[in-house]
Amino acid sequence: MSSTTGPFSAGPVDPDELSPAERYRASAERRAEAATYLGSFIRTLDFELDDFQRQACLSLQEGRGVLVAAPTGAGKTIVGEFAIYLALQRGLKAFYTTPIKALSNQKFSELSDKYGADNVGLLTGDTSINGEARVVVMTTEVLRNMLYADSATLDDLGYVVMDEVHYLADRFRGAVWEEVIIHLPSEVQVASLSATVSNAEEFGAWLDTVRGDTDIIVSEHRPVPLWQHVMVGRQIMDLFAGETTFDEIAPPVEEEGQQASKPAETAKGRGFDVNPDLLTVARSESQQSFRIRAGAGRRGQRGRGGYDRPARSEPTGVRPASRPQVIASLDRMYLLPAITFIFSRAGCEAAVAQCVGSGLWLTTEKEQQIIAQRVDEAGQDIPPDDLDVLGFWTWRDGLLRGFAAHHAGMLPTFKEVVEKLFADGLVKAVFATETLALGVNMPARSVVLEKLDKFNGEAHVDITAGEYTQLTGRAGRRGIDVEGHAVVLWQPGTDPTAVAGLASRRTYPLNSSFRPTYNMSINLLAQFGRARAREILESSFAQFQADRSVVGLARQVRSREESLAGYAKSMTCHLGDFTEYARLRRELSDAESATSRTKSRVQKSLSGDSLARLLPGDVVNVPGGRAPGPAVVLSSDHGSREPRPAVLTLDNQLRRIGTDDLEGPIAPVTRVRIPKSFNAKVPKSRRDLASSVRNALRENRPPAPGQNRNHDFGRGAALPNQERRIADLRRALKAHPCHGCSEREDHARWSERWWKLRRETDGLVRQIQGRTNTIAKTFDRVCDVLSAYGYLEDAGEGRLNISPDGQRLRRIYGEKDLLISQSLRLGAFNDLDAAEVAALASVLVYQAKREDRGLRPRMPSVSLETSVDIVVKEWSVLEDVEEENKLPLTGEPELGLVWPLYKWARGRHLQDVLSGTDLAAGDFVRWVKQVVDLLDQLAKIPGLDPRLARLCAEAINLIRRGVVAYSSVL
Fold first, then answer.
1. Are 643 and 637 in contact (CB under 8 A)?
2. Is 239 exposed, middle or buried (0-12, 13-18, 19+ CB in 10 A)?
3. How far apart are CA 899 and CA 857, in angstroms?
4. What is the pLDDT of residue 514?
5. Cα separation of 668 and 656, whole Å?
6. What pTM does this model have?
7. How far apart are CA 112 and CA 313, in angstroms?
8. What span, in angstroms and rounded, lies between the C-alpha atoms of 466 and 503?
9. Is 760 helix (H, G, I), strand (E, B) or coil?
10. Residue 127 pLDDT more than 70?
11. Cβ atoms of residues 162 and 177 within 8 Å
């Protein structure tokens, strides 16, 4: 393994700067290079290669693998294109893998233009074009599936380009990259292209271990300088004092592991100061805010009714510019085209609407004609009725003015049109979510960040330095722009030093998310046997990182053991064994804590039991949580481990209540009858039921006879054994000789330090034990589960055979692989027609957002209701098994797509399908394509019931129509 790291130059060295001997040597090297594959490849380009690009291409030409880590827009993909060129010149195949379908489609289009449509293919989960071509673009999952199926398409494979390889850190899909890297035949050369990561050396060392000779090429240099700004009101101000670019503020690669703990110190520590004008604005805003808060009470006046009338609110600082004003300012300063990152789909759409509503135009008449022609061509095959549902005309109007949104909820076709128009300079302002930064090639002159925090699904969190670098890396188009610009919008409370810290740090570590899945494990067993499978898993990057961390942990343990010896000496007491006395104190403290926890656990259990006993129509008084106050139970939740019945509050809100909302067991205070015609989705139904609840409460109606079910719950549990134990420990403590020591508390402080350090040291020892062979241990637990379910059979002497059901599992790929296999095994797909098969498949694919999960809907048919029950019950059993075996839990089946997909399969109009749901058209198309992918997998399982295979194929034809069929590849 060789490593080349540093700020490579942007191009060749000026010949005038070389000595005659150096010029002669350079000329000889150029002549030699011209006769090579690299020389002929360079002649096809209309630009000079940068040093890092040339170095990486030389490594590939000499038969070594490469890891290329460089900033966004630096030109990494040219290395991948050279790998393809080498394959074609040597009569071999080349695969170009990407993490997302949009990037696959984009790369397929580029390579088809360059090498001809006959030589390039595309394989994604739902699209297959010319799959046996010499060059095939594919998503990484497709290549993984090929490797496990030992596909003939792998014959003559010479090169694999893994674009965006840093995606292997992704929590949900990252393991696929490691599977591919591990399982590719040894003769295949791998070109891994990555964003700049702070542990490239570590990742490269792993690649060298599993793939053989691999060169690490790291470039920190941006070919287009990036300037950092903050927009205060309508004024764009430099973030740093003086002329400071991205390359200058970023720490050298070797400093990555020892950066300042505080972000603000990072730039300042290297002599780069924040613009003093920005600091003045921040101080002024802070002082004004303080004065207003301090004076609010004094200026409060007495209102006519005797109440305190609050003082009139005053602005506390800079008023942020509106979105149209931001774009207009960028336009005046010639900083368009720009991408504005807004961490919300609704925010992106609202931004376009605001700019259109402001009357702002960014396009010329000629540009408008070109845009109109392209947009109309894109929409000509979409059924006219669907155009209105898709918001086509609003979208078209924004594009004509030069504005567009870009997010995952858009129709793929619309996104591709936006990408092409933006790349051609026709659309000038795009409002995008962060998914655009994941690899789609859409560079801009400027990037704007509205905020520096985002909602991660659970809470609002600050973006990391790595995310900041990736988002702003889009600024600056190579070969077009002289410089790029990153603009952060000033928001109330903005701290310029914190922004400077984000802009000057490059900490973006690549951490493995690899873990053995059911499908992965059974495929490894089938191909290699148990012993070899364990060895392969132990060669993963996850285990490689764990093993490296053990060395540092062992060093910490040795150091702490020395400190423990010193602490033990300091707590020595002349009256007796203070270690024993300290142990009694510790046991007493632990016993008191355990008793408190037990009481809390009992209370929570009683609360859970009371929730499980609630019935529809019970009116309860919820003490806290998101829905405090009276609420009526709409649906029970008897079967869950942690019951969360659905309720309707008096302000007509649908909620679920759990033990966290309660202070103790809950009992009905009254009861109402829920009409059979009640529909929770209809506002009038909710209002009428809430009115009935108010009446019942006003009339103080008691619960119906036999409904006062929860008054028998005790408010606590007697814990005589624990209380007795605490009393015994207290007596023993007082009787100990050290209890009367005059320096007892001094000794106790040393003993507390000893116990704390002992506990921490023991924790480190457990970490070392846990990280040793951790992946193989997980694999063993997965095998135990598969054996318990009958997918593996004991063949004696530690060998395992794959059962017929196990062979079926080998061909099922997805996050719910074992649940899907069990659903087939238990007959969940029996007695269904094609439309119902598609709807049931959605249950095993769809993942609702947390806030979208509501009441369980009634199924379209009795047979589908029965099938869904089978799946849900089997998931509940599987979750218990996984919990017992300490494995990650399989996701809960989601029913939110059942009705839309069933209607779509029955031929209903898109508007009818999406009516009453929160699904965006783009989301619907994306999920339908994933259902198509699953149905296609099922149809191709060897030995599957021919009737079910036929139904799967029929279901695919039913749902791959209209916008779904049209949204494949332009």
1. yes
2. buried
3. 9
4. 85
5. 16
6. 0.70
7. 61
8. 9
9. helix
10. yes
11. yes
Could you tell me if 870 and 827 are in contact, meaning their C-beta atoms sit under 8 angstroms apart?
Answer: yes
CA distance 944 to 365: 59
**Tokens at residue 766, please?**
């457990």
pLDDT in tens, 689-712: 999 988 888 888 777 665 444 444
Q: What is the mean pLDDT of residues 244-260?
A: 49
Report whether 400 contacts 363 (CB < 8 A).
Answer: yes
Residue 435 has pLDDT above 80, yes or no: no
What pairs with residue 462 in β-bridges? 453
Burial bucket for residue 848 (CB in 10 Å: 0-12, 13-18, 19+): middle
Least confident residue range of 17-26, 358-367, 396-405, 556-565: 17-26
Distance (Å, whole) CA 242 – CA 252: 20
Residue 150 neighbours by CB distance under 10 Å: 9
Question: Coil, strand or helix: which one is 50?
Answer: coil
Task: Give, in degrees to the nearest 5, the angle at Cα 511 between 96 and 64.
Answer: 45
Q: Which residues pair with 793 in a beta bridge?
A: 801
> SS3 for 36?
coil
Mean pLDDT to the nearest integer, 705-722: 52
| 956, amino acid identity | I
> In this predicted model, what pLDDT tens digit does every residue of 639-653 receive, in sequence order?
677 788 888 888 888
Distance CA 353, CA 348 (A): 9
Residue that the structure tokens 């209903």 belong to: 908
User: How many residues make up the chain in this entry?
Assistant: 970
| 900 touches 917 (CB < 8 A) | yes
Structure tokens at 254: 């070797």
Give the list of residues 6+ apart from residue 515 with CB closer than 8 angstroms, or none: 175, 542, 775, 778, 888
How far is the C-alpha of 900 from the C-alpha of 413, rounded, in Å? Answer: 21
Both ends of the chain: CA-CA distance in Å?
Answer: 42
- Extract the tokens encoding 484: 């790029």
Tell me how far apart the 2 most distant CA atoms of the chain are, in Å.
105
Assigned token pair, 552: 């540092």
Residue 944 token pair: 């599957």
Asked if the bond preceding 443 is cis, omega within 30° of 0, the reply is no
Which residues have C-beta within 8 Å of that of residue 427, sequence separation ≥ 6? 337, 371, 399, 402, 403, 404, 418, 421
User: Would you place residue 234 in the very low, low, confident or very high pLDDT band (cuts 50, 70, 90)?
Assistant: confident
pLDDT in tens, 278-303: 888 888 877 776 566 555 544 444 44
Split at pLDDT 50, 70, 90, the class of 260 is very low
Between CA 739 and CA 749, with CA 744 as vertex, the angle to 5 degrees is 130
Residue 178 host element (H or E): helix 175-183
**Distance (Å) of CA 820 to CA 845, 860, 934:** 9, 21, 10
Distance of alpha carbon 144 from alpha carbon 142, whole angstroms: 5
417/746 Cα distance (integer angstroms): 74
CA distances from residue 396 to 102, 349, 418 in whole angstroms, order as listed: 21, 13, 10
The confidence band for 497, taking pLDDT boundaries of 50, 70 and 90, is confident
Assign 703 to helix, strand or coil.
Answer: coil
SS3 per residue for 275-333? CHHHHHHHHHHHHHHHHHHHHHHHHCEECCCCCEECCCCCCCCCCCCCHHHHHHHHHHC
Q: In this structure, are residues 646 and 635 in contact, taking their beta carbons and an 8 Å threshold? A: yes
Across 41-55, 382-396, 704-718, 913-927, least confident range: 704-718
Q: b vs e for 924-947, b when ≥16 Cβ sit within 10 Å of the residue's Cβ?
A: bbbbbbbbbbbbbbbbebeebeee
* Alpha-carbon gap, residue 109 to 682, rounded angstroms: 46
Q: What radius of gyration do the chain's Cα atoms show?
A: 32
pLDDT at 258 over 60: no
**Considering only CA atoms, which of 819, 892, 828, 820 is closest in space to residue 863?**
828
**What's the rounded mean pLDDT across residues 890-896?**
91
Find out whether 174 and 166 touch, Cβ atoms under 8 Å: no
